[in-house]
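Dear support,

Our group has been running a series of protein-ligand predictions, and this particular one with pyridoxal-5'-phosphate is the one our PI (initials K.S.) wants archived with full inputs and outputs. We had some confusion internally about which version of the output was final, so please treat the block below as the authoritative record. The input we submitted was:
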Amino acid sequence: MTRSDPLAYLSTELETLKQQGLYRHLRVLETEQRAHATYDHRSVVNLSSNNYLGLTTHPKLRQAAMDAIRKYGAGTGSVRPIAGTMDIHLELERKLAAFKQTEAVVVFQSGFTANAGTVASILTDRDVVISDELNHASIVDGCRLSRATIKVFPHKDVDAARRVVRDLPASQRKLLITDGVFSMDGDLGPLPDLCAVAEESGCIMMVDDAHASGVFGRNGRGTIDHFQVHGRVDIQVGTLSKAMGALGGYIAGTRALVEFLYHRARPFLFSTSHPPAVAAACIAAVDVLLEEPEIIERLWANTHFFKSGLQALGFNTGVSESPITPVIVGDAALAMKLSDQLFDAGVFAQGIGFPTVARGKARVRTIVTATHTRDELQFALDAFATVGRQLGIR
Ligand SMILES: Cc1ncc(COP(=O)(O)O)c(C=O)c1O
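Confirmed final output from the archive:
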């Protein structure tokens, strides 16, 4: 008997994406992840990676990874709580705790699992989470998994957040959570004001600093350091996958928080630990932040040059305060067209539409790095000028 395909509806969904101009082919990187790279056989100025500091190819990370493979092999063969905690995992956690000036750190396999695993394990269905509407998907998923009541406040609207918490019983456990840097708009969470709300109402305060790690604060310590709100944020999330050049996420906080997550965070309990090469590369990345802060200065100089260049060309770059600069065009099909035509002109800037951003807010997102040369950035600005004019965007 022939069986009809029970997954046929997925093809229908894909057809709809194609009709809406939202269907994407995965671009394939054929070289190292660099400021100038080859994707789909084409050499392009790369404005799409999160490799803010160029650490994916930094000699110290490369060497540390190779040394670790020689010493420990390719994998760990176990989850952390059974047999997969190596001395380098603990060294990384100690190093990050000292860097973040917190009692302790636990490292997860990714920033996604750090967020989702933490929120889901510290809350129950009796609790409430108060979350910015543009918080990252991993926070949203963690909130759902926790089965806590989710109250979403309008983006960066501190008064709205305050009203939400005021209406809740004082005895109820509450988590107030925001991104430090919002990944699609590049703006900053209003940390000092949200910390004040948390302090007034006894909320646990949590900040996801994925895009701030290595970018904001002294030596890239993040937005907690940038805003000088040390001691006022109970749970700091960082990622090791973006500016840090490798892979992973971490939670920085008290020793009790970290030990609780060792016992209860499901990605920590049920998914194999980082390969030694990854842990070693991350240790080297922290050293680079401490020893070569001039890389971060170059990132910011490039950011100011490129952002002001896009603005001078008349593009709508939204409210960005970071190296993430969107070029907002509204219509998803137009954003994809802009991205495709830029690619043909030698510039890779990914088009982004729903559900990653709200409908009607489609954009091309650019991220400059410390390793872009001025010539590369000027080349990209010229391409934006030409393609933007052709498409009537500026
Ligand atoms: C705000 C934010 N949080 C968390 C993550 C997840 O980090 P990772 O890539 O390490 O899983 C991302 C990545 O896109 C992000 O933008």
